[in-house]
């Protein structure tokens, strides 16, 4: 289907609006803290919706609906695991990390926090954690660029190579200019657009297939096992899908939203908003993929693009069922999901390179203006590397995301979680946790051991390493004092 002018116009207006927000944020960006964390000024609504939007990426509207379309409700275990993991992350980590980063040198990045929290004078903890961020986030950024390229390719008939650059250009532009505030403000707009698309689309698909009873009969006729939550699953398979929830504790782009909240008091309200948004979005995503089975069974003549690539199920439904103007808005929701995640991933990589390498080891006395511009140049550098990695048109969004998600979840998740709840954790324990988590994910992924998602053994082994190695030493008096002060601050203000 060739793109209509209304769809194209909608896209152009949407992208222009995001870039305009970037220029508005530029005027509020005066130093590196503003560029990396927005001066810790996010209110509860922006904290909640930007955390949600930065989390979900193109996977929400492409990877997961595609998986449900292919396999039925058995793939929805991943959504259940994510909801549980996100809630526990908000409950146990969000508020504590906000105060711990403030009490530990007003840390702007995770490597900065680890270095201050554990008094790492050698810089080894900072370097290793920054390298982990760069390796796994570059893969994660590539997944976002693939999703954007797929959208532009299927909507505008571009070649995959041209679509790569078209999909990435707008995100790079507003992240480069406006930094964290631009990313957070645009994320709020994008989260609103995503939830609109994911509530409206399944309702219209349901109406187009003849209502709930007719739809369910069609899905059952296609394959009765589509309703079976245990279809083609095993205990290990279900645990692997649920294990995605463990990843939340270690995702730097989500944790950055907690660190940037204006106060601990904002966290509780943000948690309620974010979890409501997430449950509605994931429910809508599962419904799109599930009802899509019925629609394309009834209309095999238009099922070709989805048969070729099941991750296009949302795209094709939007194009087939909606007025071109509305379709443009709905397809912009995919772009919103891609841009919201890609932008904050680029920013976290830029932060690691600028704060944790350039400022710490090369230019300790660099001016704030210099650091902001170095940060902007690093956004471009990481984006170009990610575009190069995404150049293979055979890439699948969900596969790239799962590897990066596991890497962060295992390498940083146990370290972050345990560092905010246990004062007995030491620098060597943190170092062991990061190394064991990252290495376990890489080795487990390479050998595909037991068919178990690599985040689970990575998280378990990293946690054990932190505990055992920490018990071999003891935290310094300063570490204990700062931990107790932060915990008291948290309990007073939560």
From TrEMBL:
CDD domains referenced in this protein's UniProt entry, alphabetically: SLC5sbd_PutP
Statement: the UniProt record of this protein carries the keyword Methyltransferase: no
Oxidoreductase as UniProt keyword: no
Molecular function GO terms recorded: L-proline transmembrane transporter activity; proline:sodium symporter activity; sodium ion binding
Compartment(s) of residence: Cell inner membrane; Cell membrane
Gene Ontology biological-process annotations: proline transport
TM region(s), chain numbering: 6-26, 76-94, 124-152, 164-183, 195-219, 234-256, 277-298, 325-350, 371-391, 403-422, 429-444, 450-469
Keyword annotations from UniProtKB, A to Z: Amino-acid transport, Cell inner membrane, Cell membrane, Ion transport, Membrane, Sodium, Sodium transport, Symport, Transmembrane, Transmembrane helix, Transport
InterPro entries attached to this UniProt entry: Na/Glc_symporter_sf (IPR038377), Na/Pro_symporter (IPR011851), Na/solute_symporter (IPR001734), Na/solute_symporter_CS (IPR018212), Sodium:Solute_Symporter (IPR050277)
Bilayer topology: Multi-pass membrane protein
UniProt catalytic activity: L-proline(in) + Na(+)(in) = L-proline(out) + Na(+)(out)
GO cellular component, one term: plasma membrane
Record-stated family: Belongs to the sodium:solute symporter (SSF) (TC 2.A.21) family.
PANTHER family in the cross-refs: SODIUM/PROLINE SYMPORTER-RELATED, SODIUM_PROLINE SYMPORTER
Function: Catalyzes the sodium-dependent uptake of extracellular L-proline.
Protein name per UniProt: Sodium/proline symporter
């Amino acid at each position: 289907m060739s793109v209509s002018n209304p769809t194209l116009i909608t896209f152009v207006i949407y992208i222009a609006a995001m870039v305009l927000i970037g220029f508005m944020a530029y005027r509020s960006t005066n130093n590196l803290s503003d560029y990396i964390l927005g001066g810790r000024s996010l209110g509860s609504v922006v904290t909640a919706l930007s955390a949600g939007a930065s989390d979900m990426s193109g996977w929400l509207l492409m990877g997961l609906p595609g998986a449900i379309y292919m396999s039925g409700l058995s793939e929805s275990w991943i959504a259940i695991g994510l909801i549980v993991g996100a809630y526990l992350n908000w409950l146990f980590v969000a508020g504590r990390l906000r105060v711990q980063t403030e009490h530990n040198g007003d840390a702007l990045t995770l490597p900065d926090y680890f270095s201050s929290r554990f008094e790492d004078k050698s810089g080894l903890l900072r370097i290793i954690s920054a390298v982990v961020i760069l390796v796994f986030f570059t893969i994660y950024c590539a997944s976002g660029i693939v999703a954007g390229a797929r959208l532009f390719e299927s909507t505008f008939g571009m070649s995959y190579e041209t679509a790569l650059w078209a999909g990435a250009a707008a995100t790079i532009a507003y992240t480069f200019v406006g930094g964290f505030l631009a990313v957070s403000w645009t994320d709020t707009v994008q989260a609103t657009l995503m939830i609109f698309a994911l509530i409206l689309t399944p309702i219209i698909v349901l109406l187009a297939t003849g209502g709930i009873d007719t739809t369910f009969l069609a899905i059952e006729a296609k394959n009765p096992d589509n309703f079976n939550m245990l279809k083609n699953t095993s205990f290990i398979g279900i645990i692997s899908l649920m294990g995605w929830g463990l990843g939340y504790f270690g995702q730097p782009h989500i944790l950055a939203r907690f660190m940037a909240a204006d106060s601990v008091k904002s966290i509780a309200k943000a948690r309620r908003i974010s979890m409501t948004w997430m449950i509605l979005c994931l429910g809508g995503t599962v419904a799109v993929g599930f009802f899509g089975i019925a629609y394309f069974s009834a209309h095999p003549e238009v099922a070709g693009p989805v048969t070729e690539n099941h991750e296009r199920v949302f795209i094709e439904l939007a194009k087939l069922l909606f007025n071109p103007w509305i379709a443009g808005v709905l397809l912009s929701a995919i772009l919103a999901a891609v841009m919201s995640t890609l932008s904050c991933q680029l920013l976290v990589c830029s932060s690691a390179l600028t704060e944790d390498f350039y400022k710490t080891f090369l230019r300790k006395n660099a001016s704030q203006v210099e650091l902001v511009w170095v940060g902007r140049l690093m956004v471009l550098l990481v984006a170009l590397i990610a575009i190069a990695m995404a150049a293979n048109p055979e890439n699948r969004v969900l596969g790239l995301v799962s590897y990066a998600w596991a890497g962060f979840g295992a390498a940083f998740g146990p370290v972050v979680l345990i560092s905010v709840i246990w004062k007995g954790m030491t620098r060597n324990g943190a170092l062991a946790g990061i190394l064991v988590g990252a290495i376990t994910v890489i080795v487990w992924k390479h050998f595909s051991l037991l068919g178990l998602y690599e985040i689970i053994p990575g998280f378990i082994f990293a946690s054990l390493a932190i505990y055992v190695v920490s018990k071999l030493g003891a935290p310094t008096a300063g570490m204990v004092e700062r931990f107790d002060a932060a915990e008291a601050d948290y309990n007073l203000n939560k």
